[in-house]
Amino acid sequence: MKRLFQISCIATVLAAPAFAIAQPTGYTGPSTKAAPSGYTGPTSVPLMKAKDLLDKGKDDQQARLQGKLLSHKGGDDYEFADASGKITVEIEAEHFPAGVQVDQNTVVELTGEFDKETFGESSFEVKQMKVVGK
Q: Residue 84 to residues 36, 93, 117: CA-CA distances in angstroms?
C-alpha cells in the first residue's frame, strides 16, 4: 500500500507540468505580446492605386490596395482591379476572412508586398485581407 502511494505521488508530480503547459492554449485575457493578425488600428503602409504600384513600385515594397477581385486565375492567383487598373494578386486561402463570402462585387483592402519582375508579370503577394464593403 505504501508503495502504491509513493507511485501515485510521483505520477502527480510528473503530470503537473503537463497540465501547466496545456493551460495557456485557451487563455483569452490580456497579453503583453502584440497580436499581428488581430490588429485593426492605423498603419504606416501606404494605400496605393494598382497602376501607381505597377509603374513606380519597388520590389518587396509594402503597400495596401483597395478594390475588387474580378476573377480567379488559378491556384493562389486572382485578378484585382481598382479605378486605376488591374494587377495579379496572390492570396493564400488562409488570408480570406473566415465566414465571409468574397465575390467580384466585394470591396476588399489587401495589405502585402509588391513583387516587381524585370521580365514577365509583376504581382502583389497578399499578407492580410479585409472586407471593406459590398
A: 30, 26, 20
Specify the amino acid at residue 72: H
Please state, in angstroms and as integers, the Cα–Cα distance from residue 79 to each residue in 47, 56, 86, 112, following that order.
Answer: 18, 19, 7, 15
Sign of torsion over alpha carbons 14, 18, 21, 23 = negative
Report the amino acid identity of residue 35.
Answer: A
Is the pLDDT at 114 greater than 50? The verdict is yes
Cα dihedral across residues 90, 99, 68, 47: positive or negative: negative
Closest CA to 123 of 46, 71, 61: 61
**Higher per-residue confidence, 24 vs 65:** 65
CATH superfamily of 47-133: Bacterial OB-fold (2.40.50.200)
Closest CA to 67 of 45, 42, 50: 50
Q: What does the domain layout of the chain look like in residue ranges?
A: 47-133
Helix, strand, coil in percent for the chain, rounding step 5: 30, 35, 35
pTM equals: 0.68
